Amino acid sequence: MLTPEENELLTRTGPGTPMGELFRRFWQPVALAEEVAAPDQPPKRMKLMGEDLLLFRQSDGRVGLVEPRCAHRGADLYFGRNEECGLRCVYHGWKFDADGRCVDVPNMQPGRARDNIMKTARIRSYPVREWGGQIWAWFGPEGMEPELPMVEWALVPPENRYISKKLQECNWAQSLEGAIDTAHFSYVHRVLSEEGTGKPVYLDKRQQWIHEDGAPTFEVIGHDGGLVMGGARRADPGELYWRISQYLVPNHSLAPGTFPGEPYAAQSWMPVDDENCWIFTVTWCPDRPISDEELERYDSGRSVHAMVDENYVPHRNRANEYMLDRELQRTRLFMGITGLSEQDAAIQDSQGRIADRARETLTPSDAGIVQFRKLVLGLARDLQQGIEPPQAQRPEVYACHSGGAVEPEDVSFGEVLERRFGHPTAHATDLLPGRQAAE
Amino acid sequence: MLTPEENELLTRTGPGTPMGELFRRFWQPVALAEEVAAPDQPPKRMKLMGEDLLLFRQSDGRVGLVEPRCAHRGADLYFGRNEECGLRCVYHGWKFDADGRCVDVPNMQPGRARDNIMKTARIRSYPVREWGGQIWAWFGPEGMEPELPMVEWALVPPENRYISKKLQECNWAQSLEGAIDTAHFSYVHRVLSEEGTGKPVYLDKRQQWIHEDGAPTFEVIGHDGGLVMGGARRADPGELYWRISQYLVPNHSLAPGTFPGEPYAAQSWMPVDDENCWIFTVTWCPDRPISDEELERYDSGRSVHAMVDENYVPHRNRANEYMLDRELQRTRLFMGITGLSEQDAAIQDSQGRIADRARETLTPSDAGIVQFRKLVLGLARDLQQGIEPPQAQRPEVYACHSGGAVEPEDVSFGEVLERRFGHPTAHATDLLPGRQAAE
Amino acid sequence: MLTPEENELLTRTGPGTPMGELFRRFWQPVALAEEVAAPDQPPKRMKLMGEDLLLFRQSDGRVGLVEPRCAHRGADLYFGRNEECGLRCVYHGWKFDADGRCVDVPNMQPGRARDNIMKTARIRSYPVREWGGQIWAWFGPEGMEPELPMVEWALVPPENRYISKKLQECNWAQSLEGAIDTAHFSYVHRVLSEEGTGKPVYLDKRQQWIHEDGAPTFEVIGHDGGLVMGGARRADPGELYWRISQYLVPNHSLAPGTFPGEPYAAQSWMPVDDENCWIFTVTWCPDRPISDEELERYDSGRSVHAMVDENYVPHRNRANEYMLDRELQRTRLFMGITGLSEQDAAIQDSQGRIADRARETLTPSDAGIVQFRKLVLGLARDLQQGIEPPQAQRPEVYACHSGGAVEPEDVSFGEVLERRFGHPTAHATDLLPGRQAAE
Question: Which residue range or ranges hold the Rieske domain (chains A, B, C) (predicted)?
Fold first, then answer.
């Protein structure tokens, strides 16, 4: 439960908000690399943390993320021409490069006056980098950019990963909370039965354990990059099935399902505004390409990767009630909505555009959510006091893993982490040649 | 004419508003019985007096009207499962019954903590009853429920009545004002001529009298349940045609057209919010079933019963300007809009979402409207002072009639009421076996 | 650059705003004459400077512009009947004429009470005149109407002019600024090349000069009716190509393109509200009918006259991004949008619904814009102090011309005006028989 003030603090990320400032102390994923594939293509409209922006790749390959407003008389550079290393306004021909510098003012005659204008007439721009199949941007104070976070998917060859993007029609925080709450798997994603049989059918034992134990015990350990969380369910007699996820400050999580040999999965939340966000979903294998079978499944949009249109809007969305099928709900799927990603989207959106956290009744399995809020609110408040978030300057703390494990009942969570990941908080020390691993 | 403050007082019925509190002292019709026909069907979204709610019939046949928000983390119970005597949230499986009690918390392990949560985690719910083909709800203080109002249509066999529901896209009060203003019949519902003839054609003498005398004299008598109103028009020489309607506190009216042997008609207004309302329209015969011919007419949607879609939205509505046909208006129908109900809807909506009553010029035939405002504003103000509305606890005052009569010019309104209804305010004492009739 | 306060002052024209009051001191063009062609046709909804109104022609040919609200109970007179010299409300038959006087109250019996109501129950109405193919209205203080402005297109025979109307989806002021900024022609309207050739193709030398010199020098001279502005570009060696436009207080401009023998062009901006405006565009010849060829071009909608639908909404508009064609933009049209009018609309709308003038970097070629703001803001402020705008009472100052000229480099702007128009500020003294020409 949060007070209304805390809820505001948690959910608002526009310019000047405390949480917005915290977000702006970290490199942020803003687009898929495919969105600015070729130079000199039309600029692409973006809205990120409440700011309207244009994304474009200029002739020399550099990517720009700039405000869409010409410095002359405020015409929209979206209508502009991306040509010869800059974006040219079509009202009077002014031109700006990826750094926001004014590089041409053709409606003035050459001379000192024009030179002065070209020196001072800038448009707002944000540094960007390509990293792991994504475009990352720095919205923070100039010159304070840290190195990019050492997320594993950025370290593997492109063929080892699969990235997608989708619109989520609610605030970033409640969607992230859905991801670090592993208890919901027993309900939101429950398969009731195969058609006609009336009996539950499980793809594998894991699915059975998840569905048969709807009240997992939950443990949370803080670390340098965020939180590692374990939800334990009864498995075969004498054993527990652990699902271990990560929350990485401020807006990333690693998913709990991976068994050794299977692809890892991560999600990042980029607020469009306070009532919508982009979710970037990555699945990757450290040591092999994504298989054809996996690729086919991801492309089909029924996994963590959603089925989306050309604007990355899911086919099943708020407007069509996620194509909720009451007959399906009665007979086959607990939720009546097809698709793992779509089920998550529906239930998270259903909490409202911005979930009201003042009227909650939390349970032990909400422990991860409680710790997440405490951590990120603390960092935002610290920053208001001038204390920078330590994670921002330590890219190596983002090198960590998540996944599932089956262990005897008497093995502690800490020991499970050591056995499964070789590290007490599942940090991937082997990913970091020449670096000091997180502790 | 009302001051802006009085207009606010009259029109706002959200939680906590004075008029909203008055409404909540009476059983309110909220849905047709057909809307929750079978148990264990999906819950139905409702918005009533500004509150979002779910309506459902649970396994044992009981109907619930509850807030749609799970007490755990606020997920929308609309996506939930109506099963085994309760509505189950699909996020983590919490379950609530028709009384709003929490009856299952499966994401917690059994024990005292879970017991405590199940005891305290309630969702808001409102008692409901089925009565006269409708679902009625009690939004008032717990335990203060009176008996249901003795409206005649609830006392007759189902085959003797016909009920419909339609959306009206304006505030409840101005629509009700349209119903108790019988002068508008001479204009809004006027038929100009049959096609081609250029001469007015009347179905019967009543229609002719209505159209030929557009300035009826108007009389209003207060009674225990509200107001009885008579509009008198010139009929055959030496006679008056009386159209007598009822206003029943706070949001019902009985229509003035009924001649002996014809069906009665009533309307109730249930605010969706302050800019929309549901109108429930009932036509019934005390002593015989609705005839096939009447049924056909009602089904066809050109009477007081509108033609609506599956969501009870009229085919002719604000968005399509009620299919106003200017050629029809020029030649055949004064208003150019087809359908009695549709004509009323159009002209009432046209006053604005919430009519501004500060710029009116009222006439003698608006006497019923003036008295209605005075009565209902007085009751709302009294309630603010702690004085309960007396009608609420006297269900028998709702047993009354309305209709038309033709009488010699020198017969007073009081005498007309006695002759036509056998009672000075048209109360139906015979409907109330073993009860004290209203006085 | 304007302060936010100045920008508000410039852009808001609703009732009671300073700029709105200034507008209301001038006859304003509100509709094409064709919009109220025949008597007794249905009233037409208008929104003008934030006010909802109805426009209709009554039986005797007079045109009324009245508020749409019946004085009785506020029903919408749009649903009313335009018959027998007045607009009749269909709720209770009240009737109002073009002067807003109540001429019938049929729901009351004859007598003093009804007489009193008919005397006092007025609806707001505005005097209108037909002038130059347009309906003009007077929104100012009763009795202060000046004579109509002596715009030339109103003085020529109907066959000598072509008038159109179109919706512009932004504030009036920035659209007018687009018209008096002749520098934008070199960019917004630039043709890159004919298909396939890769080389620019010019229709005539003027187009070539415009495109080859994107930094015209700009001169502005104030006069009794507003401003005359000249933009000079390099033409053939030793010559300048002058494009001379007019700004006429408070919301008209005359276009700079006309060479002798060609039609003149003017535009007037009528705010719908602060975020939309109507543009009336007139092209006319003083001494000959519009030719068939010109007519065909105007009808085709690729000139200053836009292609619009039956509600005067351009086919290419904000919602469809003006059918921006990126391939066209890459190869043939600098802006990628077809149509002179459509190019202007797109770039002006792109500045926002209301352009923010606090973040501008103005250049010498924006001199006309700077003077326009200064002049019109000064008049609005003066009026707040009780000083009436002098132009309002001098209709003859609106008789002036605009157009292009080619002159040797050493001829001053004043001399160019004398040579081209025979008057130092291009006033058309010959248009004013018996009048004192403007000085």
Answer: 27-137
Question: Is residue C335 less than 8 Å (CB to CB) from chain A?
Answer: yes
- The closest CB to that of C108, out of B329, B360, B364, belongs to B364
Q: What is the average pLDDT across A198-226?
A: 91
B107 touches chain A (CB under 8 A): yes
Q: Name the minimum distance, in Å, from the CA of A99 to any CA of chain B.
A: 44
Chains with 3 or more CB pairs closer than 8 angstroms to A? Answer: B, C
Task: Answer whether residue B228 shows pLDDT above 70.
Answer: yes
Instruction: Say whether residue C44 is in contact with chain B using an 8 A CB cutoff.
Output: no
Instruction: Kindly list the domain boundaries of chain A, sorted by start residue.
Output: 27-137, 152-431
What separation in angstroms does the CA of A91 have from each of A285, B390, C181? 49, 71, 10
Of the candidates A76, A108, A120, the beta carbon closest to that of C363 is on: A108
Average pLDDT over residues A377-395: 97
Question: Could you tell me which residues come within 8 angstroms of residue B296 by beta carbon, excluding any fewer than 6 positions away?
Answer: none
pLDDT at B196: 60
**The pLDDT value given to residue C432:** 57
Percent of chain A with pLDDT over 90: 93
Q: For residue C312, give the 3-state DSSP assignment.
A: coil
State the CB neighbour count (10 A cutoff) for residue A62: 14
> Contact A214/B93, CB-based, under 8 Å?
yes
Cβ <8 Å between C69 and B366: no
| ipTM of predicted complex | 0.95
Residue-wise pLDDT for C343-373, tens only, equals 999 999 999 999 999 999 999 999 999 999 9
Which ranges of B311-435 does DSSP label H, i.e. alpha helix?
326-331, 340-349, 367-384, 413-421
pLDDT value of residue B433: 52
What pairs with residue C279 in β-bridges? C166, C269
CATH code assigned to A27-137: 2.102.10.10
| B364 contacts in chain C (CB < 8 Å) | 108, 113
Q: Of B325, B360, B369, give the one whose Cα is nearest residue B346.
A: B325
- Residue-wise pLDDT for C29-68, tens only, equals 999 999 998 999 999 999 999 999 999 999 999 999 999 9
**Cis peptide leading into C250, omega within 30 of 0?**
yes
d(CA C438, CA C396): 7
Q: Which of C74, C75, C92 sits opposite B183 (nearest CB)?
A: C92
Q: Do A187 and B76 touch (CB under 8 A)?
A: no
Q: CB of B118 within 8 Å of any CB in chain A?
A: no
A216 close to A229: Cβ distance less than 8 angstroms: no
Q: Do B351 and C117 touch (CB under 8 A)?
A: no
> Are A137 and A231 in contact, with CB atoms under 8 Å apart?
no
* CATH number 3.40.50.300 given to C152-431: no
CA distance A11 to C95: 56
CB C75 within 8 A of CB B351: yes
The set of chains that have 3 or more CB pairs under 8 A with B is A, C
Chain C environment of B347 (Cβ under 8 Å):
75, 79, 90-91
Q: What percent of chain C has pLDDT over 70?
A: 97
Amino acid at B141: P
C364:A121 CB<8 A: no
The alpha carbon of residue C208 is apart from the nearest alpha carbon of chain A, in Å, by: 16
C196 pLDDT exceeds 90? Answer: no
* Record: contact A361-B74, CB cut-off 8 A: no
pLDDT digits (tens, 9 = 90+) for B101-133: 999 999 999 999 999 999 999 999 999 999 999
Average model confidence (pLDDT) across chain A: 95
Going by the DSSP 8-state scheme, the letter that residue B300 receives in this structure is H
Chain A nearest CA to B29, separation (Å) = 27
> What amino acid is encoded at C336 in this protein?
G
Average pLDDT estimate for B237-256: 98
Asked if C360 is an interface residue toward chain A (Cβ–Cβ < 8 A), one would say: yes
